[in-house]
Each structure stands twice: as structure tokens, then as C-alpha cells.
Amino acid sequence: MSDYGGGSASGGMSPGEGQTTQVGVNGRLSKKDRVVLCSVLCKCKVIGVATRNGRIQRQRCVQQRLDAANEVSRIATGTPTEYRPEQTYNMQANPPEPVTDPDDPLQPHSDLRKWIEDFWPGGRTQYKAGQGNLRRPDVVVVNDPTQPPVQSNISQVVEFKFPPDAFGRNQERDYIRIAGARSKFVTLGPAECGCGDDDSDSKTSTQKQSQTSTDMDDVLGGSSGSSMSNGGGLPPALPPPPVPPVFP
Q1: Cα distance between residue 20 and residue 13, in whole Å
Q2: Is residue 158 domain-resident?
Q3: Which of 38, 112, 184, 208 can bridge 193 by disulfide, Cβ–Cβ 3.0-4.6 Å?
Q4: Where is the composition biased (Low complexity) (predicted)?
Q5: Alpha-carbon distances, residue 237 vs 21, 70, 226 (angstroms)
Q6: Residues 144-186 pLDDT 10s
Q7: Residue 200 is part of which domain span?
Q8: Residue 1, in any domain of the structure
Q9: Residue 140's beta-bridge partner residues?
């Protein structure tokens, strides 16, 4: 794990911790952030990502589009954008620390099982899934894209919810803890982004089924309340989006 973890991060929680966050409050997002994230959300609401079994994974679509934009930014500027999808956090640290690539602290760790084996006390034999030890928000918006997504560099933690998806046990509370303040946590859905309404809203988005969407629910466990039925096997990688998003 990178030494970037906690150096400049400021811990603590804001007053009002433990209250219920109002879904869809967007006043804390900047105009640019809302335009970018709502554009991605609305596209993925319509398109999603089709898997071999025909299920639509909209959160996977969000990740693919933001990852594609980050790769374009790395080529052009040497750093990713300020939008970091599916960044895992170690909730046992105070404040929670991003689980990043040991060679590149701007990248999420690509293998959570290896990270657990290497860095968790007792390794995989002592790690307990489903207890909120690791959390992975949909998108973390950072202030400075040249620095790791530690708490002091977080502008907003954003969770996308495609109806009828709902928060898992303690998921909302933990995302606020990652952000460091209630005012830095936002939930977005199609209604808040003005995506329109159609029959797809009545169907589950199966948002937490792919490896890179929650990177193995048998490891993260509590983020969606589900686990992979194959006992730890990983599904095949999904193809990249046909066209990378262009941010305003």
C-alpha cells in the first residue's frame, strides 16, 4: 500500500453524523461536476453494459466511461481527471485510506485479494467479508487530480442509484465517513439528473455484479449485501465502451 495514505489527510466527521442523507441533493456539486456526472449517468441509464447472460450493469457502464476519460487525460496531461470511479477504501484506517496501486497512488489497486493477503492483519484467513472493512463508492471527485484520493483531497463522494437500487447496510454512513463530512456526500439518480422516465427504471440495474464494479462482493461483502455464487471465481472482463466520454 502506498505511503500516500494518510500523510495530509484530515480526519474527523462533521456535526450531524448518523442522520439520514436526503437523496438527490445536488447543491453541493459544482455545475461542472453535475454536468459531467449526470451526462454519464443518463447515458448509462439508457445503454448500460450487456453481459453474457444478458444482464444490464449500469454502474459498470459508469466506471468504463470515467476510466476511458481518465486514460485519455493521462495520455494528454500525465494525470487522470478529477473523477475516480470505484476507488476502494480501507475503513479500518482513520480517516479511511484509499487502496491504491503500490507503484501508482493515482490508480486503484487492481487485485484486492492480493492487497488483503499482503496488508490485512492475518491476511485473507483473518479478513471477514460483509463487515464493511472495505468500501468502494461509485465516484470520488478530487480537488487535485495530481494527488491521491485521500480525504483531504476529496471534493465529493458521489453514489449513483438507478431505481430500484438502495443502500446496503451502513453503506451510506461509511461513504460519509470516507468523504469526511456530510456536506461532501451526494447521491444522484436519473430523476435528479433529468434523464427522463421509462420502463427501465422499474428493473434492477444489477449494479454490483462484476469484478470491477465492486471487485468481488465476496471480498467487499457489505457494499451491496450480495455475494458471488461461484465461491470466488471472477467473471470475464467486459469490453470497453465504444466511444470515450468527452467532458465539457
Answers
A1: 15
A2: yes
A3: 38
A4: 203-214
A5: 34, 19, 20
A6: 999 999 999 999 999 999 888 888 889 999 999 999 999 999 9
A7: 31-220
A8: no
A9: 84, 157
**Residue 175 three-state SS:** helix
**Residue 248 located in a structural domain:** no
- Exposed / middle / buried, residue 112 (Cβ in 10 Å: 0-12, 13-18, 19+): buried
Half-sphere exposure of 39 (CA within 13 A, CB side): 14
18 sits in which H/E element:
none
Question: Which carries the bigger pLDDT value, residue 7 or residue 203?
Answer: 203
* Count of Cβ atoms closer than 10 Å to residue 204 Cβ: 12
Retrieve residue 137's grid coordinates. 463508492
Three-state SS at 212: helix
Residue 17 has pLDDT above 70, yes or no: no
In a domain, 246, yes or no: no
Q: What is the mean pLDDT of residues 65-81?
A: 96
Among residues 211, 204, 246, which one has the least CA distance to residue 230?
Answer: 211
Number of domains forming the structure of the chain = 1
b/e code 90-107 from CB counts within 10 Å (16+ = b): bbebebbbbbbeeeebbb
- By residue count, the chain amounts to 248
CB 136 within 8 A of CB 88: yes
Contacts of 222 (CB under 8 A, 6+ apart): 129, 130, 131, 132, 135, 168, 169, 170, 171
